[in-house]
Amino acid sequence: MSPKPPSPERRWRDDLHLAHTIADQVDRLTQARFDAGSFTVETKPDLTPVTEADREAERAIRERLGRARVRDSVLGEEMPTTGHSPRQWVIDPIDGTKNFVRGVPVWATLIALVEDGQAVVGLVSAPALGRRWWAVKGGGAWSGRSLSSARRLSVSKVAKLSDASLSYSSLSGWAAARRLRGMLGLMQSCWRTRAYGDFWSYMLLAEGAVDLAAEPELELYDMAALVPVVTEAGGTFTSLSWEPGPFGGSAVASNTLLHGAAMEHLGGETD
User: What would you give as a GO molecular function for this chain, any one (predicted)?
Assistant: First the structure.
């Protein structure tokens, strides 16, 4: 009799433990830089900022993965992709760099594992907020200071846009993507709108504190770690063209109940 295959959460348990260990190390590095305010800021070709802390954090993550997961590929924001494997770690060393450089504590390190085209492990660590969130496919979404001290997350049960809270990052991106009219229509249909921004919007969604989050232009490293947390909490995460997961270049996340209604506003291009 052949052995029973491991359950989904057991299959990636060691990977999740590794992500936590890496995040512990990187949190110390980035928090020290943030507290000291001692870093230079450069502008990348895409006009987004990058600091020494971004590069140091990504280098530390890659070095640890290079020792612990030598066969896996690594894709990050600041350095070239390494390796070719059906298992790829996707990392954003500091999501929310603009906040980081201005002393706003809403920034986080994002660590994800994508296997065979699915985001199966996601960890979001925000040391300046004293918060961490994580999920493994099939194992639920959790938040806490450690694996041993955590609470399970669940999205809200709000079923009408008129009762819903929407979080976003900015309106300029929606204008550039020629979808501003749709976004404004969605905002006017919702009970409350706030620009919490970046990873924070999606973690609040997973906690049930907001009901919708959306951004028109994102990279894989911006989204990969968010997807398992949102979906394992019972939410839905697609692109503006309904592609599930983090691969469509944009994000619409919801408590699932509101996804269709939100997409009616956001799904079509506008002037």
Answer: histidinol-phosphatase activity
Q: How far apart are CA 98 and CA 48, in angstroms?
A: 8
Binding residues for Mg(2+): 77, 92, 94-95, 222
Quick one: which of 178, 173, 261, 255 has its CA closest to 213?
255
Given this model, what pLDDT does residue 45 score? 55
Task: Output the known binding site.
Answer: 77, 92, 94-95, 222
Backbone angles phi, psi at 222, to 5 degrees: -75, -25
Binned at pLDDT 50, 70 and 90, residue 142 comes out as very high
Find residue 206's DSSP bridge partners.
none
Residue 37 has pLDDT above 90, yes or no: no
d(CA 247, CA 239): 8
pLDDT mean over 82-95: 94
Average pLDDT over residues 245-256: 97
Asked if residue 97 lies in contact with residue 223, where contact means CB atoms within 8 angstroms, the answer is no
User: Could you tell me if 78 and 101 are in contact, meaning their C-beta atoms sit under 8 angstroms apart?
Assistant: no
Q: CB-based contacts of 170: which residues, under 8 Å, 6+ apart?
A: 195, 197
